Structure formats: C-alpha cells, structure tokens
Amino acid sequence: MAANETAEPILLEDRRGAVVEITLNRPKVLNALSFALLRALADALGRAAADEGVRAVILTGAGRAFAAGADIQELADMTAAGFIASDVFRAWDEVAAFPKPLIAAVNGYALGGGCELAMSCDIIVASQEARFGQPEIFLGLIPGAGGTQRLPRAVGKYLASELVLTGRQLTAAEGERFGLVNRVVPPALVMDAAREIADRIAAQSPLAVRQAKAALRAVYETPLAQGLELERQRFYALFGSEDQREGTRAFLEKRAAVWKGR
Ligand code: DAK
C-alpha cells in the first residue's frame, strides 16, 4: 500500500437497479490511476459485463478529481522493458472493450490517463468545474492510452494538437462546445445527470443497446464501407430476437415494450 493510501478500498462499487456505479477512490492523490486501481477497475467491469442484470455502468471519482492521470510515482520507477514484461496496461484494453454502455461522470480533473479513461467511455457528463487535458508533455512524455488517437477524433486535429503539444487544459464548457462532453451541469448534479442517461439506456432492449455500442465503436476502427456493412449485419441480427418483435409490436399496439434480452 502506498504511503498516502488509507485502509479505504481504492475502488467503490454500488448497484442501483440495473446500473452499477463505480467510484475511483484515491482522492488524496486525485485518483491517480495506479496499476492496482486500473486492475480493480477492469475486474469490476468484467463482473458488470458478466452480470445479465447490469445494463449500464457509471464511472466517477471521489473528491475533486475524476482522475489526474497515471500514478506518476509509479511511472517514475518504470522502464520500457518493465512495461513490456509486466503487460500492466492490458487493463486499459479491457476497459476499452467493455461491451455495455459506460458513462463517465467527470466531477473534476480528467487529465492524462484520466482524460483517456473518460474518452474510453461512451458518454461524458461533466461538472462545470471539470478540466480535461493531456499534460504528459510536462513530464517529457506523450499520451499512452489513446490520447493522441481519441482526442483528435473527438475535438478535431487542431485543438487536439494544441492540447497534446502545450498541455493546456480545457474547461468543461469548452469540452462541450468542441464535442468532448455530452452535457455540463453544476457539480452537485453530475451523478444525477449520469443516472438519468443510464436509466434511459437501461430501459431499452439490452440486445439492441449492445449491438448499437459495438457498431458505434467501429466508427473509429473501420473505413466507412466496412462500418456500414458491420452496422447492417448487426441490424439483421436483431431480427432474430424476441426483443425486436416485441418492440415493433408494442409500438403498433400503443403500449410500452417489455424487454426480455433475447
Ligand atoms: N500521480 C500521482 N500523484 C498525483 C497525481 C498523479 N498523476 N496528480 C496529483 N497527485 C498528487 C499530488 O502529488 C499531491 O500529492 P501530495 O503532495 O498531497 O502528497 C495530491 O495529488 C494533490 O495534488 P496537487 O497538490 O498537485 O493539487 P493541485 O490542485 O495543486 O493541482 C493538478 C492539481 C491536477 C493540476 C496537479 O496535481 C497535476 O498536475 N497532476 C499531475 C497531472 C498529470 O501530469 N497527469 C498525467 C500523468 S501521465 C499508458 C496509459 C496511460 C498513461 C501512460 C501510458 N499506456 C497504456 C502505455 C498515462 C500517463 C499519464 O497520465
């Protein structure tokens, strides 16, 4: 346990109906993403993925940060060979591959790996006090968990270049204006806003939600023609489901659909 760690768990998990709420809980170091914290996060998401009753997950941070990046204390001791040998960053891939909707409730700083973690989510709700940025350049580093790739896709090449090359932070309002943030709310309402979105998603067919997320994710990974084909295949696949028949029937019968997830 690091010197600044208490006996408190570094990750908190709470279940609210069909939604799991996960809180990064190292507030004294602004939820710096230690290898142990990332592993705990990936494991919690693994459990949420395996649990059929879970329809969405909200990720937030305790205290005044979402996450202020990788734990610089740990980074200081790492070597290139150490990274490769320990494969410590596999957890990042597991987070990015989480198949259910993941909503970031960004309560404060989302810097470096913290910004990259938010960008690995599907939806970003931010407090007015949140700050986004990739300050790795101040450490003589570059982003390592997708910042140079996901940030330009979210805000465009030129703003992303400025943020990565100068380390400037974006306010939540700027994040919203430039497409990084879905909505900005007063600090006390961040979780409420995230819950409202999570509940809306949880009310939909889990099959359709899963297919939609997979198709949306492909935007970043495939040329348009291939992405359109992938969307079509996932669309067709839903026509083999009870939920699809129920959804269309419920609309025609002017009643709410009852989803079975099959
Ligand atoms: N790591 C460790 N400790 C941190 C930390 C971090 N990232 N950020 C803050 N802390 C600690 C501070 O050291 C301080 O500890 P004490 O001195 O109290 O013991 C405490 O948290 C409070 O921070 P400050 O006193 O600095 O608070 P301020 O309000 O004055 O400033 C700040 C807040 C967020 C502007 C400042 O703390 C800051 O600049 N923090 C560092 C932000 C940063 O540089 N983040 C990028 C880290 S590099 C990869 C995946 C990911 C990554 C790399 C590779 N692969 C998959 C290959 C990620 C890299 C990074 O994120």
Mean pLDDT: 94
**Could you state the order of secondary-structure elements as H and E?**
EEHEEHHHEEHEEHHEHEHHHH
Give the uncertain stretches in residue-range form. Answer: none
Distance between the termini: 44 Å
Envelope shape: globular
Strand order of the largest sheet: 1-2-3-5-7-10
The whole-angstrom Rg is 19 Å
Task: Describe this protein's structure.
The chain has 262 residues and is α/β, with parallel strands linked by helices. It is 45% helix and 16% strand. It is built from twelve helices and ten strands. The chain has helices at 35-50, 72-76, 80-86, 90-96, 113-119, 147-155, 157-166, 172-177, 190-202, 206-217, 224-238, 242-252, and strands at residues 11-16, 19-24, 56-61, 65-67, 102-106, 109-111, 123-127, 131-133, 170-171, 183-185. The strands form two sheets. The chain has a six-stranded mixed β-sheet with strand order 1-2-3-5-7-10, sandwiched between helices. α1 (35-50) runs parallel beside α4 (90-96) and α6 (147-155) packs across α7 (157-166). The longest helix has 16 residues, at 35-50. The protein is globular. The chain starts with 10 loop residues before the first strand and ends in a 10-residue tail after the last helix. The model has no long low-confidence stretch (mean pLDDT 94). Residues 4, 29-30, 32, 68-73, 89, 92, 109, 111-113, 135-136, 138-139, 144-145 line the site of 4-(N,N-dimethylamino)cinnamoyl-COA.
